[in-house]
Specification:
- The protein has about 150 residues and is mostly helical.
- It is built from 7 helices and no strands.
- The radius of gyration is 18 Å and the shape is elongated.
């Protein structure tokens, strides 16, 4: 029993949790980063494709309140670039994860409401975002480093 308890304590420490949170940050960031890169011109960093503007002015994307048309293309493309960078760095992790959770909910509720993508994909994105919102970036994050420096 003592050996099992020791193993449990070792597995539930700050380092294993930090590794799990780092992997979660990378996984969630990767999903949105890859999506962001499909919205911009090849070889550019943030030059949005004409097809992206068209996509956001056409159904089902034009069903999103406020963020349809050109505004939706700009906001989505920029946020899909900016928020994953925050997650990778572990900087403002909870804010970045909250933003990506919001994007996930908008996609599910307004863009693809009739699809069962929720249980296949979006529930996993939401779970990763919620873990990061609740636990933060972990010990391998700039949040932690800044927190220690600021006391």
């Amino acid at each position: 029993m003592a050996m099992i308890r020791k193993l449990i304590n070792m597995m539930s420490g700050a380092v294993p949790e930090g590794i799990a949170l780092l992997v979660t940050r990378i996984a969630l960031a990767g999903i949105f980063w890859r999506s962001a890169r499909t919205k911009v011109e090849e070889g550019s960093f943030l030059t949005i494709k004409d097809t992206t503007f068209f996509q956001f002015s056409d159904a089902p994307f034009n069903q999103v309140p406020v963020l349809n048309g050109d505004l939706g293309a700009y906001v989505t493309t920029y946020m899909e670039h900016f928020l994953p960078i925050l997650l990778i760095l572990g900087l403002a992790t909870r804010f970045g994860a909250l933003g990506l959770l919001g994007m996930t909910l908008v996609i599910q509720i307004f863009v693809f409401p009739e699809m069962i993508i929720w249980w296949q994909t979006h529930i996993l994105w939401a779970a990763m975002a919620l873990i990061l919102i609740v636990r933060g970036g972990g010990i391998f994050s700039l949040d932690r480093l800044i927190g220690h420096k600021l006391g």
